Every structure is written in structure tokens, then in C-alpha cells.
Amino acid sequence: MLYFTRWKALGIILTALVVCLCAVPNFFPEARVRTWPEWAQRRLVLGLDLQGGSYLLLEIDANYVKKEKLDQVRDDVRRVLREARIGYTGLSTKGDAVEVHIRKDTEQATALAKLRELIQPLGGLLGSNGQRSLEVTDAGGGLIRLRVPEAAVNDRIRQAIDQSMQIVEKRVNQLGTVEPVIQRQGTDRILVQVPGLQDPTHLKQLLGKTAKMEFRMVDSSVPPDQAQAGSLPPDDELLMSASSPKVPYVIRKQVLVSGGDLTDAQPGFDPRTSEPVVNFKFNTAGSRKFAQATSENVGQPFAIVLDNEVISAPVIREPITGGQGQISGNFTVESANDLAVLLRAGALPAPLTVVEERTVGPGLGQDSIEKGELAAYVGAIMVVVFMLVTYRLFGVFANVAVVINVAMIFGLLSLLNATLTLPGIAGIVLTVGIAVDSNVLIYERIREEIRGGRNAISAIDAGFKRALATILDSNITTFIAAAVLFMIGTGPVRGFAVTLGIGIITTVFTAFTLTRLIVAGWVRWKRPQTVPI
């Protein structure tokens, strides 16, 4: 156990040195680190509780999701019955179901069969339990009822949360913030933590917008004042302009092109007027649909609708076949940039509302850092003193290994670009105790071997060898606990689990390679007859 080949000793020293060097960028200003090669720029990121920032808890509008699901079912019923050439009346939504009356009794069975083709098994674990997306029943008297079960609504909410998290992450990242934390909270909520962002107002505005963009035609045959008086065709709807003063528009419900066909959106300036605008590009399908729509409606106004508000309603002067265009609408530079961010990130499947908001000031974060450092220093000093008093020279060996152990923890955290939180500092302090505990087990075992009559070198060798199983058992069980905390925990709990898990790995490395290498070097140099322990 005490014999090391030259190459093995060199490998242990180089491993510890390289990992420790990964922590070096944390000791230099960020501006200087950015001038280094990209591979050398990895460093620890301070969490929300250490550098301050914004905390938002967003909740998805479950009623909106349910309504969208029912509207989709209603549109599917209309499409299926029309394709099957089955006459119907009274297609409407009532409660959690869609109802439709079939005109002819002879077509009732065919309609039921066609509508039951809409039933799909729910994805994920629910699908294995036989859950379905629809319940289609014959209510009698020619009435067919399509009910959306609660399981299907919950499944749609889950999908909406997954999609919303991706879009929220894109929007937050395009603000240029550092290491935002975006996590699911419960079944219908999203947690957003943005370190360093002290004013969450702008962030709330970006996250609160659905950003559902549509290109639709303006119905010029219906005057807006007549529509406001209640005379609105069934295929039209009345929308207001986004800018003030509010201007009413009569817009056709048919969507020519949706925002989902956009591939890019960038802020810019109109070369003719120098006003801020948003330049956009469509994908292949969107370009084809946009070219067809503009070719068929030359001379007619069309509306660019964002979240049921008309941004602008220009007149189509000529067919637009290049798959790109320009949105103007009295933008400021900031509003044009915000709209471009929203369009690039995509539309949220449902509105998100802020149910909880907190702002941590940099002063409070600095206070947390100072108190965390104080706790770490006091704990480390007490451990160092205890080891020196109890184990003398071997205590010095243990303290050297602990210092290298802590440096390796910071090196690995920097290598992973991990976020350090206050519980993470607690995990590092706890790791110091665990590291010392490993050395205590080894040293106490050496003492037992000496009392059993072994000579110094034999006792040291047996102490390391026989303590191995005990230390591995204790560290593996602690590592399992840290892994469970990481998998089921959120936010600061995961930060604690990460530092603790990494600390356990470095502890095992330093206890059975580095400390043993130091002791082996001392034994070869001194050839001791007694153990100063």
C-alpha cells in the first residue's frame, strides 16, 4: 500500500495539480478572464442568493389550455364531418365537452365511427393505463358528445409546461444574463431565477407576452364603427391596435400565415424613414403561403396580429415572394428589439402569470458571501487545529490533503461552470469534515495496529489497507444521499447536492492516493521506528 512507482506518483500529482489549476480563473477579474482562450474561461457562477437577482414563479393558465383543447376538438369535428359529407347543426362547446347534432338518423352511425377516429392514447405513462384523449358518446336524438377527460387536460398542461420552459429559457438567454435557472415547479408552474438582474420589470414583460403572431386579412367591407355596434360577420372579429390611441380593425378569423413559420426576426431601421422596424424571414412553407396570400390580395390591407392586437395593417402593393418582410408600427429601439426576441423564441402555448416575485439585492448577497466565508474559515481553522493537536505530524499531512481537496472541489465546479449558492458553501464546509473523517479513520486504525504490536512501517501500511473498506462504505452511502437530493431536489438543494457529491469524489481521491503518497514519501525519507501520531 505504501509503494508507488514513479509514473503512478507523477500521475497523482499531475491530476491534483491540473484540477486545482481549473480554479485559478476565479481569482482574476471577469474582464481579464474573457481575454483568455475559451477553454480557460470556465469559472464558478454565483447563485441568486450570493450575487442578488430576480426570482419569478410563473403559473400557466390552465383554463386557457382547456379552452384551446376544446377549440381544437371542435375544429377537428367540423373538418371530419365536412370531409365525410355528413350534415350537422349546433356544433358548440358546453362545459368540458363538444356537442354536435347530426341531421339525418341514417348518418348517425357513420358520424360516430368517423369521430371516434379522433381518439388517441395519451402519451407517457398515462397511455399504458388505457387513458384516451377523448370520450365520444351517442347522447340520443342525433346528439353526439365528445368529452375531454381530466387526464387529457392534465396531459396537455404538462406538454404546455414543457414547451413553455424551452421558450422561457430562450427569451431569458437572449437578454444576455448569466446562468439563469429555469425549472418546473409542481404540475403547472415554472420557476425562473436570474442572478444579477435587479429589476425584473423588463423580464416580466417579456415572459408575460404569449407572442402569438398571425398574418390575417382585414375585412374592408365592414366599417369598424358598424362592427362595434354589434353588426359583425361570423367569420370576422374586432381587434384593437397595439399602439395608442386605440384604433379598431375588422379582421378575418382565417390565419394566412402563423408565427410558427418564422425562422428569424431581427431589429433594424427602415432605410426610407429611419424608424425602428423588425425584419423577419419565413421558412419554406411559410414563404409559399405568404407568397400565395399576397398574390391573391394585391391592393387589400392585411393585419399583423400579435396577441390579439394589431401591430400594423399595411396594404399589399405587390406579391411578396422572397419569404421575408418588415414589421413597422411606431416602435422604439427597445420595443423593436423586444419584439424580435419574442418572435425568435416562439409563441407560448398559453399565457403565464407571475404568482410570486422576489428580488435579492446585491448587498444581501454580499452579506451572505461574507457570512459563508466566515463560517468556512472558522470551521476550517478548528479542523486544522484539531488535527494538529491530535495527530501532530500526521495532522499536518491530513491538513495539506484537505487544502488540496478543497482546491480540487473548486476546480471541478469551475470546470463544470457550476452555480455556487449558499447551501453549496455549506456542502463544501461539510466536505472538509468528511475529508478529515477519512483521515481520522486511517490514523486511528494505525494506532490500533501499533497497540497490536506491529512496527511503524507495517502499522502504517495496515492502517491504510484496513481502513479502505470502512471509508468507501461511508462515502458511498453519503454519495447516494447526495444523488437522491440532486434528482428530487430543486434550486439550492441541488446546489448543495452537487458540491457534496463532488466533495466526496475528491475526498476518496485525496485520502487514498494523495495522503498515502505523502505518508509514503515521508516513510521512505525517514525510515521511522515510531509513528508520531
Task: List the keywords.
15 helices, 19 strands, 533 residues
- Name the beta content range: 15-25%
| Mean pLDDT value | 84
Strand order of the largest sheet: 11-10-16-15-9-12
Q: Which structural class matches the secondary elements?
A: alpha+beta
Summarize the structure.
The chain is of the alpha+beta class and 533 residues long.
Describe the structure.
- There is one protein chain.
- With 533 residues, this protein is an alpha+beta fold.
- Helices cover 51% and strands 19% of the residues.
- The protein has 15 helices and 19 strands.
- It has helices at 6-21, 30-33, 48-51, 62-83, 108-116, 125-128, 150-173, 201-208, 224-228, 284-296, 333-345, 362-415, 422-451, 456-488, 492-526; strands at residues 45-46, 53-60, 88-94, 97-102, 135-140, 143-147, 181-185, 189-195, 213-217, 236-241, 248-252, 257-258, 262-269, 276-282, 302-306, 309-312, 324-327, 352-360, 419-420.
- The strands form five sheets. The chain has a six-stranded mixed sheet. Strands 7-8-2-18 form a four-stranded antiparallel sheet.
- 35% of the residues are buried.
What is the topological layout?
Elements: H1 6-21, H2 30-33, E1 45-46, H3 48-51, E2 53-60, H4 62-83, E3 88-94, E4 97-102, H5 108-116, H6 125-128, E5 135-140, E6 143-147, H7 150-173, E7 181-185, E8 189-195, H8 201-208, E9 213-217, H9 224-228, E10 236-241, E11 248-252, E12 257-258, E13 262-269, E14 276-282, H10 284-296, E15 302-306, E16 309-312, E17 324-327, H11 333-345, E18 352-360, H12 362-415, E19 419-420, H13 422-451, H14 456-488, H15 492-526
Parallel strand pairs: 1-19, 10-16
Antiparallel strand pairs: 2-8, 2-18, 3-4, 4-6, 5-6, 7-8, 9-12, 9-15, 10-11, 13-14, 14-17, 15-16
